[in-house]
Amino acid sequence: MFSKKIKTIVKIEGMSCEHCANKVKNALMNIDDVKGVKVNLSKKEAIISSNNKLDKDLIKKLIEDLDYKFIDIVEE
To answer: Which fold would CATH assign to domain 6-75?
Structure first.
């Protein structure tokens, strides 16, 4: 049976360069079940692809531990 991919969009403020984007991407890629992460600086968001629902509190903590401002999460 195939599992459906879940797309989670994390709104983040404070990222200003590719180094910031890479820090966020690397942190999010370390979460279990995450298959891919794309960070869009102009939209101030990270798009996470996963097979299962992710722990929103964990994502928020990871973002805040990197000294960025967590704004919101939307699952599609």
So the answer is: Alpha-Beta Plaits (3.30.70)
